[in-house]
Amino acid sequence: MAKVRVHQLAKELGMSSKELIEKLKELEIPVKSPSSSLDEKQVMLVKEFLEPVEVPAREVVEEKKEEETVVAPQPEKEERPEQKEQVEPKEEVAQAVAPPVPAVKAEEVESEKEKKEEETKEEARKEERKEDRGRRRTSDVRILSPEELARRRRRRRRPFRKEERGEEKKEARPRRREKFKKPDREERRKPVPEKVTREQLEKLVASTKEPREKEKHKTAEEILAERKREQKELEDQKKFEELMRRIEEKNRAKRKKRKKKKKEEQIAEVPFEELSEEEQLQRLIEEEERAKTVVIPEVISVREFAEKLGVEPTQLLQDLIALGKFVAINQPIDFETAAKLAEKYGKVAKLEGEEELESLEKELEETPDREEDLKPRPPIITVMGHVDHGKTTLLDYIRNTRVAEKEAGGITQHIGASVVEVDTSEGRKTLVFLDTPGHEAFTAMRARGAQVTDIAVLVVAADDGVMPQTIEAINHAKAAGVPIIVAINKIDKPGANPERVKQELTQHGLIPEDWGGDTIMVPVSARTGEGVDELLEMIALQAELMELKANPDKPARGVVLEAKLDKKRGPVATLLVQTGTLKVGDAIVAGLYAGKVRAMFDDKGNSVKEAGPSMPVEVLGLDGVPLAGDKFYVVKDEKTARKIAEKRQELARESALEKEKRVSLEELFSQMQAGEVKELNVVLKADAQGSIEAIRKSLEELSTDEVKVRIIHAGVGPITENDVMLAAASNAIVIGFNVRPDSSARKAAEQEKIDVRTYRVIYDIIDEVKKAMQGLLAPEEKEVYLGSAEVRATFKVPKVGTVAGCYVKDGVIRRNAMARLVRDGVVVYDGKIASLKRFKDDVREVQAGYECGVGLENFNDIKVGDVIECYTIEKVERGA
Ligand SMILES: Nc1nc2c(ncn2[C@@H]2O[C@H](COP(=O)(O)OP(=O)(O)OP(=O)(O)O)[C@@H](O)[C@H]2O)c(=O)[nH]1
User: Fold this and answer.
1) Which of 387, 563, 665, 864 has CB 3.0 to 4.6 Å from 573, enough for a Cys bridge?
2) Is 802 in the pocket of ligand 1 (CB under 6 A)?
């Protein structure tokens, strides 16, 4: 077809040139004037755009078309088969090749109308098919609005879309013009960029030489919508495939896990007889533990708990009543109560989280090393002794001389431990000294189950001899089973008498080698350095004898020596590697915290990448500050470390991580019955050496076959924090005769749950311990501490006696309560408060931070500096 001018086409279409130009603009065909020419393709487009309608019956037809569009060609799926039935492919072919329908004259409207009424649906489809093929239908046309046209087209065309693309349709179109041949399927499926702008789209359409036949009749928006829809379909498909892939992956992982579990079970199913003796024992222990454990949540109903225990709920209700708890069957009970009940039925209750933590921490369990993997490691040494006997001076001397020898001008970094190199007759040896005050290394750490020290160096000043803390140190070391090397210090001093020190030490079980014993004693001077080399040689020798070994080729584990929060560097912890090798980048758990080793420094402040057994290192990277004595472990990754730490924190928060079960007189009998206690360890403090001996003898005589009474430490003076910590480390009780715990000892006892008992009559001590061992401890009278006041002045009041002007330091002082007057830690009076005044007024009580006047019943020997302790006595049923 030749080019057609706009006015010619307008005439042909029966419309004005202006109207046509308007339409052409809508179709985005640029025309300047009626004389502009249009090519064949453009003419086709225009004609397609304009709908033919019978002019005289315009309204009727319009109505019909409305009906059609609403009812007939809706893309409802149910209607599709019907349509298919009605439209025979052959007919369609016939239509496809049929000449254009002649124009309808106004006179013929009536007959046409009838015909149309009969074939409404058939007509509609024909029209659609014609439209599909881009054929011109009639010259008698009516102009529809573009919106209307688009709407109709959408409605009509959709149902056919798939068919048109389908094979049968393709075959049914033998006469498709080459020019409009569809691009092949692959090309049509070219992916569309995710966010297609109209311009991009037009470019895209223009770039396709042969656009999709359908698309050439559509507006750019429609094409865009169409492509977007396709794109979305494609994306949905991809998403679906991804989902399926993930599900499959998960299933695969599950299958793998199941397989692994099955394999483990199979191993576990190895017949008992085929296991080695050790494995048999392990299996028995595991089975017994499993049978004994009930895992329960924080709160559980009586019924549920009864089910778990395998007992009748009514029975449990009775047990609860016996415990003084009246609850209904569906009411919840707390974990503590449940644990008590479980114990009655021979089971151990475990919190759900605790169980999980245990399984997590199973990973932390150490596998025994093979003999061939063990390599010698340096010894860890703690220096102990009485105040001012020269511990710090000795350590400084050793540290400084050795450091200076190694690296001139080097400044020792204080990280809680020092590594020194010593030349001995056996060659160069490495020794590791802990800086922590001796007793702490033994108590705080031992209380957490960490035994770090290999050798204890006991410093005794030659001019002072054995003093209370010397004895304490000996007892600490003995309780921990650590060999002692004695450094008799200050031999440079004129009054020094090493022989006398040796003599005194023999009274505490330390016999010098030169006297036939086995304790190494070296006279030294920390000030001049005399004898220090010999001391170091002796330490190295002792270490040699001990054959200290560890496996360096495995993930590290050890103990936190000290930890602090550094303003710039965050949590900083000094870790002592006990086994394995700690490396930068390792994921670690330390106490309640986790992290990754970001950086490590040795005791000289040098950055190091690795630390082997016995090496102390300062570590950065933990997410919190652990406690001294906490153990640390390297785990497989940071995620596991955090998981363990979180679980530990959770349990700590819920206070489920109870303190290690401590021995107490009240529970001694039940603990003995349960086999938890075979020895009753006692830390004994009294006001005089004479009483100590008497009490020690009487208590030790109480030992029976079931339980042995052992005094692990005895001393004169008040009960101190050290005594409590020693008791905590050795699972002991503290007995005070005529002495009292000081405030730090009281706090420590509360924290560590140590049973501290004080008496005024020796017979009472013996009687109570005896009864406790027989399970006959009478309903206990528990002392409840109220507060204490310091005596700052005394006044003599006629007829009343001495009144103490006091300052209440903590708690409260009550008029009707009991009072005890303590002088230098020793109880000098125990009785009642006779009067309590604020200025001149009698008051019922005085709180901490205030001054008051206190009179004691029938007691006038009050001195400035004394402490008045106020308490009440409460009766407590045993076991409550
Ligand atoms: N003459 C002499 N004086 C010494 C010697 N060793 C330590 N001293 C002195 O004794 C005093 C106490 O020494 P420290 O090293 O502080 O004693 P300590 O045992 O660490 O004391 P605390 O840390 O308080 O327990 C200091 O004035 C030292 O200089 C020594 O071998 N000879």
Assistant:
1) 563
2) no
| 735 three-state secondary structure | strand
Rounded to the nearest 5 degrees, what angle is found at the Cα of 857, between the Cα atoms of 854 and 858? Answer: 125
Residue 662 CA to residue 668 CA, distance in Å, equals: 10
Per the CATH hierarchy, to which homologous superfamily does domain 557-658 belong?
Answer: Translation factors (2.40.30.10)
Break the chain into its structural domains and give their ranges: 4-49, 303-349, 378-547, 557-658, 665-776, 780-876
Atom of ligand 1 nearest to the CA of 389: 19
**From the CB of 91, is ligand 1 less than 6 Å away?**
no
Interface ipTM above 0.90: yes
DSSP string of 470-523? HHHHHHHHHHHT--EEEEEE-TTSTT--HHHHHHHHHTTT--BGGGTSSBEEEE
Cα–Cα distance measured from residue 437 to residue 392, given in angstroms and rounded to the nearest whole number: 9
CA–CA gap between residue 146 and residue 128 (Å, rounded): 17
From the alpha carbon of 493, which atom of ligand 1 is closest?
1
Nearest CA to ligand 1 atom 12: 388
- Distance (angstroms) between ligand 1 centre and the Cα of 400 equals 16
Annotated binding-site residue? 491? yes
3-state secondary structure of 757: strand
Which residue matches tokens 């009838």? Answer: 114
873's torsion region: left (phi>0), alpha (psi -120 to 50) or beta?
beta
Q: Which residue has the tokens 């109709």?
A: 152
How far apart are alpha carbons 645 and 398 in whole angstroms?
38
Tell me: is residue 387 an annotated ligand-binding position. Answer: yes
492 lines ligand 1 (CB under 6 A): yes
Pocket test for ligand 1, best of 382, 387, 392, 470 (most atoms within 8 A of CB): 392
Which uninterrupted H or E stretch holds 442? helix 438-442
Fold match between domain 378-547 and domain 557-658: no
Ligand 1 centre to CA of 457 (Å) is 15
Mean pLDDT of the chain: 76
| Helix and strand element counts for the chain (H, E) | 30, 37
Q: Is the whole model's pTM more than 0.95, yes or no?
A: no
- What is the assigned CATH class of domain 665-776? alpha beta
- In angstroms, what is the span from residue 388 Cα to ligand 1's centroid? 5
Three-class secondary structure of residue 385 per DSSP: strand
| Partners of 350 in beta bridges | 295
Position 320 confidence tier, pLDDT thresholds 50, 70, 90: confident
- Any atom of ligand 1 within 6 Å of the Cβ of 393: yes
Give me 659's structure tokens: 């303190």
372 CA distance to ligand 1 middle (Å): 44
**Each residue of 75-96: pLDDT tens digit?**
444 334 444 444 444 444 334 4
CA dist 453 → 52, 417, 445, 546, 824 (Å): 105, 12, 10, 12, 33
Q: Measure 393 CA to ligand 1 centroid, in angstroms.
A: 5
Between CA 92 and CA 133 the distance in angstroms is: 11
Ligand 1 pocket member 389 (CB < 6 A): yes
- Give distance in angstroms: CA of 394 to centre of ligand 1: 8
pLDDT digits (tens, 9 = 90+) for 106-141: 445 555 555 556 666 666 666 655 555 544 444 444
Ligand 1, atom nearest to 387 Cα:
25
* Contact yes or no for 530/488 (Cβ under 8 A): no
Which residues fall within 8 angstroms of residue 237, CB to CB, at 6 or more apart?
none
Residue nearest to atom 2 of ligand 1 (CA): 490
Per-residue b/e over 228-251, b at no fewer than 16 CB within 10 Å?
Answer: eeebeeeeeeeeeeeeeeeeeeee
The CATH code belonging to domain 378-547 is 3.40.50.300
Say which residue, 51 or 760, is predicted with more confidence: 760
Domain 780-876: which topology? Elongation Factor Tu (Ef-tu); domain 3 (2.40.30)
Instruction: Report the separation in Å between the CA atom of 297 and the middle of ligand 1, taken as the mean of its atom positions.
Output: 56
